[in-house]
Amino acid sequence: MKPTKEQLEKLKGKTLLEISYDLRIDTTTLSKLFREYGIKKDELRGRSRKPMPPKEDLEKLKSKSLIEIAEVYNTDPTTIGRWLKRYGIQRESLQGRHLKVDKVIPSKEELLQHFDKTYREIALLYNVGPMEVCGWFKHHNMSRKPSSHINTDEQISTKENLKLDLISKVLTASDDLILAIHTLLERTK
Fold this sequence. Notes:
Among the domains are: 39 residues; 33 residues; 42 residues, no CATH class. 58% of the residues lie in helices and 0% in strands. It contains 10 helices and no strands. The longest helix has 36 residues.
């Protein structure tokens, strides 16, 4: 049964989840009812939002990253993004802002020399992060398996021997099967 506006207003001291549990209504449905009845969810316990700063203050900071602005207002970067969007403030392009000026991508040949190492080991050699090393491999269209999957000559010869052994067993088994079928047919004549 759909609760009335008065019933919902009596429960304002609780959280949305608590009201949902008490009334046995899904939180999404409950949120729709709050909108329908014009009840602000901000008045619920645990729903206090930081007030938006004046537009002019945010405009002065638009050249900074969301994280830097969030630190200024002691809030989450997502909140800052929402505020900027509500005010229609376009942030300045941050592309290239964090890139090192002297950043050089190693050549394909250089990376091939380290192919037996993990991304982390290569990253330590170049003083960068493992994801950057991964990007280098992608940049050169080089696919690579994790180092645990790289086969040594010994592993390859062992695998080949196992394959040959398996093929031999299958052939022997099929010879035995053919002999058994032949014997059975001879007996039924």
